[in-house]
Design brief:
CATH superfamily of the largest domain: Glycogen Phosphorylase B
GO molecular function: UDP-glycosyltransferase activity
Number of strands: 6
Structural class: mainly alpha
Pfam family, one: UDPGT
InterPro entries: UDP_glucos_trans
Strand content: 5-15%
Largest sheet: 3 strands, antiparallel
Radius of gyration: 19 Å
Protein name: Glycosyltransferase
Keywords: Transferase
Order of helices and strands: EHEHEHEHEHEHHH
């Protein structure tokens, strides 16, 4: 597992240059590739994963989540990430680490039923088999995607002219004017 802040984003940079239609709204300049400030990876690692993905320092998360090739989102369950995934209708694979992330995970899994949590093994780690099995379950059970799409629709309705967020924002503006 990668123990730093970098993301593994499947072939975004390569696809954006070679097949624009496959990359959706991505442009090569949207993705910052590795530079000298990033710690060294084990010898041969980058070559071994070159045809499976692309390691980048930063990628535009909202654009990534909006891409039609994205089937689920491995997330720490921070609120911003939750709302970005929710507003795109993308199911969650939850890996919280502290604070409100555990509460957010409970909502995602137990209330909204739009994702799964990654469980710890007997050594206190999340194994590759656990990740693989949860991804397979998440993708094979259409209820997760269906529930994520329902949440997306609800989120869209709240910001529409008759939605609660829209109305509350209007009330706030009126309060400021008075």
């Amino acid at each position: 597992m990668i123990n730093n802040i970098n993301s593994i984003t499947p072939l975004i940079e390569t696809d954006a240059r070679s097949t624009p239609s496959a990359a959706g709204s991505f442009k090569p300049e949207d993705v910052n590739t590795l530079n000298e400030s990033v710690p060294d990876y084990p010898e041969g690692f980058l070559e071994r994963v070159a045809d499976q993905g692309k390691i980048v320092e930063w990628a535009p998360q909202e654009k990534v989540l909006a891409h039609p090739a994205i089937a689920c989102f491995l997330t720490h369950c921070g609120w911003s990430s939750v709302t970005e995934s929710l507003s795109r209708g993308v199911p969650f694979l939850c890996w919280p680490s502290f604070g409100d992330q555990f509460h957010n995970q409970s909502y995602i899994n137990d209330v909204w039923k739009a994702g799964l949590q990654l469980d710890l093994d007997e050594n206190g780690s999340r194994s590759r088999d656990e990740i693989k099995n949860k991804i397979l379950l998440l993708l094979s059970d259409g209820n997760f995607k269906e529930n994520a799409l329902k949440l997306k629709k609800m989120a869209e309705q709240t910001i529409g002219p008759d939605g609660s967020s829209f109305k509350n924002f209007e009330k706030f503006i009126m309060f400021l004017k008075n």
